[in-house]
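Quick start: what a row looks like.
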Amino acid sequence: MSCSSEPEENLRKALECIGEAAARGAKVVCLPELFQTQYFCQREDAELFDLAEAIPGATTDRLAEAAKHHGVALVSSLFERRAAGLYHNTAVIHDADGEQLGIYRKMHIPDDPLFYEKFYFTPGDLGYKTFDTCFGRIGTLVCWDQWYPEAARLTALQGPSILFYPTAIGWHPLEKAEFGVAQHDAWRTVQRGHAVANGIFVAAVNRVGFETGNIRGNEAKEGKGLEFWGGSFLADPFGRIIVEGSHDKEEILIGEVDPKLLEDTRRNWPFFRDRRIDSYGAITRRFLD
């Protein structure tokens, strides 16, 4: 998706896309990170906390209705208002009957130029989670989580067939010429690595378009905006790309998750069997010095 300055317009678009994906045969649908607005974390503005909403709430009611109407399981990324002064970047999972199966709160929160998420989001406190939909078990992490092999591993160990990453990532315009190719390649490569290391399907779902963080006409005053690079993809347990989007067009990608391929891959590359869990205790330390 590309995202406009109007939250209601973005929600309507997302609901239409869910219907189109279902009509094309999708059984599990994932939306990009924080799809209801332009990426507002390009600035620190306390008024933008007004965008947050309770879960469950009005938006999750509409998403649940769409999941039930189209008979799909649904992964949606929302700005959660948990309490006054306490907010999360949260993925909500609905089953095909509209039931809310649960939520995952983003664990790793970045703080970089034009990605000032620590101002808005409290780190997740629910741990790494999976959800049993009527089509199978799925896992979900969110954007910055995708750089951490520990997060992918701990989710994969719970037995999902696929790991979803709702995402909002792009290029700084002044950096793109020098670093753009390498940045995108690193993003794609690390997630393919999660697929291989865990013998699992991985789906990264990103937005497209140039954004200045415009929310109802209120634009960021600093910076040059971000060019979101799209490139959504589904990788199989060998890290092979099954489907992949472009950098600049809105697209609905449909790919098949074959449980037999997952089973065969893990039989031949039994990384879970050969893990030396007795030797990993130091992983919980910040640094080994």
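That is the whole record. The chain is about 25% helix and 20% strand. The longest strand covers residues 73-83.
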